[in-house]
Specification:
The chain is an alpha/beta fold. The chain has two domains: about 210 residues, 3-Layer(aba) Sandwich (Rossmann fold); about 170 residues, 3-Layer(bba) Sandwich (FAD/NAD(P)-binding domain), CATH 3.50.50. The strands form five sheets. A five-stranded parallel β-sheet has the order 3-2-1-4-17. Strands 5-12-6-7-8 form a five-stranded parallel β-sheet. Strands 9-10-11 form a three-stranded antiparallel β-sheet. Helix 1 runs parallel beside helix 11, helix 5 packs across helix 6 and helix 13 packs across helix 14. The longest helix has 19 residues.
């Protein structure tokens, strides 16, 4: 009995690509289906634009993995409800397993009044914009001169980096529920924006919340020494923080554009040894032209898996095995059954947790579960798998999808590398799907 199977992996970010490697190593044939034209996901479109060493290193790794003849790449194909392809289509075509590694493409909101005003954006959309991912690359963002970023992690630092160093705006205001020690960004990342910190304002802000910090056992003097330095912000651009503040309302002007952010002032209390923010009912107004949510992401419910509270529902059981297979199985709460043959990994399983290394680790653990599942099923011949891939291609063609293959991606990357060289830069990306498809068609014709 053959144990070779045809597996569909939906999403070609780090989790999808590392999952593909583990599946092909086990002898399976993988069809890697990607919404974007180029593979890479957040490794390609989420890492800050000037991180050349990191980006080129990951691109080389991914290229080696996708070079495996058992990996078949289909770019520019969206999977989901009311899309050219659904998860049910893939199962009906006889794929041995369907692995969803599409990341967290849903947008998380705060649910506050005024958040639909012009000038309120989600961090993911902004990051995709400056990293040239269509269609976000083509969107116009009303940034203005003063921007509030909600959240205090590395994504906040990246966006502040873009705003202060590349857009050269006047002020970034970081709005945080808790205090300076509860930051989630790395100090090494903060160095990219440290020179814009308004030290006098930071001293004033720490003094303002000093009694709160002392009340939870934090050393105000040590915090001041760590956070406040001498000197003025570089070139007059300012980075400021508003601690112990939870946004409650976006205030718009008569044109419907952001004019200010209203935030409730919090007090900090200790709960089970952890600091927790508790609202006081007092509010303050922060004058800004734009508000960017850097509060994490949620999965995209339109993919068609059971969904609750921003995440796909997974099997609550503790099944035997390490890792627990249930953690990677979508689960229907109505039937109280796991969905047979469908699995989730990476940010599709646990949204916004960790970076490339965590996605890789989660994909590798998840594929142990998938490979164990496939080992219990009868496989198919190489000919049968080829026939299924051809049937899938034919189906997409009938639906009018402009499918991009591995060979097409190589043609596109070749053109982008030439364009980068001509511009004397290390990287260049075409910023629309139409232009990328046009370049691929021209290169194909010239072969």
């Amino acid at each position: 009995m053959s144990k070779q199977h045809l597996v569909a992996v939906v999403g070609a970010g780090p989790a999808g690509i590392y999952a593909t490697r583990k599946l092909t190593e086990a002898g399976h044939r993988v069809v890697l289906i990607n919404r974007d034209i180029k593979p890479g996901g957040l490794a390609e479109y989420g890492i800050f634009v000037d991180k050349e060493k990191m980006k080129t290193g990951l691109r080389k790794q991914f290229k080696r993995i996708l070079a495996d003849p058992r990996a078949f790449y289909l770019g520019h194909v969206t999977v989901g409800l009311n899309q050219p392809l659904s998860l049910k289509d893939l199962q009906a075509m006889g794929f041995g397993a369907v692995v969803v590694t599409a990341g967290a493409q849903g947008t998380k909101k705060l649910g506050i009044e005024g958040e639909d005003s012009i000038g309120v954006y989600h961090a993911k959309d902004v990051v995709y914009h400056y990293n040239s991912l269509p269609p976000f690359s083509e969107r116009h963002f009303e940034i203005g001169r003063r921007v509030a970023i909600i959240g205090m992690g590395n994504v906040m630092v990246d966006i502040a980096n873009w705003l202060l160093n590349l857009k050269k705006i006047d002020q970034v205001v970081v709005v945080a529920r808790r205090g300076p020690l509860e930051k989630a960004y790395d100090d090494s990342e903060f160095e990219y924006i440290d020179m814009y910190l308004d030290n006098a304002d930071m001293k004033q802000e720490i003094d303002r919340i000093g009694a709160q910090l002392t009340a939870v056992g934090q050393d105000v003097g040590a915090i001041t020494q760590k956070m406040v330095r001498q000197g003025e912000p570089l070139e007059g651009r300012r980075l400021t923080f508003r601690y112990l503040c939870s946004p409650t309302k976006v205030i718009a002007n008569e044109q419907g554009r952001v004019a200010a952010l209203e935030a409730e002032e919090n007090e900090m209390i200790l709960q089970d040894g952890k600091t927790v923010a508790k609202g006081t009912g007092r509010t303050r107004r922060i004058e800004v032209d734009c508000v960017i949510y850097a509060i994490g992401d949620q999965v995209d419910a339109s993919l068609g898996l059971p969904f609750s509270r921003g995440a796909f529902v997974t099997n609550p059981e503790k099944l035997p095995g390490d890792p627990n297979p249930a953690a990677y199985q979508p689960y229907d709460p109505e039937t109280k059954k796991a969905l047979d043959g469908i699995f989730v990994a990476g940010w599709s399983r646990n949204a916004s947790v960790g970076l490339v290394g965590v996605a890789k680790q989660d994909a590798e653990r998840g594929m142990k579960v998938v490979n164990a599942y496939l080992a219990t099923k009868e496989g198919g011949s190489a000919g049968e798998m080829e026939a299924k891939i051809e049937a899938l291609m034919e189906m997409l063609k009938k639906k009018g999808a402009s499918v991009v293959t591995k060979a097409d991606v190589e043609l596109l990357e070749g053109a982008e590398q030439e364009a980068a060289k001509a511009r004397k830069t290390w990287d260049f990306k075409y910023t629309s799907d139409e232009k990328m498809l046009e370049v691929i068609a021209a290169r194909r014709a010239g072969q």
